[in-house]
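An example makes the point: we print one protein in full, the chain in one-letter code, the fold tokenised, without further comment:
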Amino acid sequence: MKATESPANGRRVGRRGDRPAGLSVGGAGRWKVPTNGARGGVARSTAAPAMKKGICYGCIPAEGGAAQRLAAVRAAGFDGVELTFAAVGEGPLTMGLGGADIDALRHLVASHGLQATSVMGGGLLRDAPLVAADAAVRERGVSNLRLGLRIAARLGADTILVHPGQLRPDARYDDAFGWLVDALRALRPDLEATGVGLAVENVWNKFLLSPLEMRELIDRVDHPLVGAYFDVGNVVAFGYPQQWLRILGPRVRRVHLKDFRGRPGQLGGFCQLMDGDVDWPAVVAALVAIGYDGYLTSEVGGVGLEETARRIDRIMALAAAPT
């Protein structure tokens, strides 16, 4: 297979030589974004990178309005919150927000000493998956992401989590891979216009089942603002998170923290951080090895914000432990 072809029908996906101005070329021709601790860049240093604590908005106890919830997040010691594109009435961020409302939400987050770490795609792609067999559905997903990128930029977030969709029987695996490459590449002008990146998450969707496939996807899209949103807990049922991290390396743009125990296919297998089968010392060693200095965002609730923050502190402390 040629380097400029996608695995689906030999579609061309472009070359590496047309990188945007201001971006440097790293090893093996990879583009690298200048390091920014708040942006999940790649730091190369002998010291352990300084990671930050984040929490998904949906994991905040549903007590009071957005202001009260954000105040509780900050009081618990978190640095940032991952907002979600939600249906009207289900959260503070929706696709229909006007500019003034977006500005107000950005101010609300900042007024509590928090950063909008990233935005979960949620409603952008729920009914418009990028791996749908129907091309019109895929195009609607691309259009929704264009809107999402503009909203995220105005909100002050630098990354949108992309759930590419559930692979269905009418969409062949290799075709879906090519469709996803094409969709992400179609958004390159929007990425450069907004400065906001896209991070594809490893999810239980019968697709992108190995770190080799995720790496290949990102390399074929070949843009510095496209990477992986690595979910630690989602891998445990069929792989080793620390291996995924080392294989993906600087392609990791964001990290979700979950734990898991039990048999594959059990949703109930997800559990509180450090209560499951994740080898956290190995995971943190891998994060340090690849120079990850972005957010560790918890996607679990149920024990209270303070306890979740304490568990993330214990995980982050492993970065300073002798190897």
Notes: The longest strand covers residues 115-120. Residues 36-320 form a domain with the TIM Barrel fold (CATH 3.20.20.150). The radius of gyration is 19 Å.
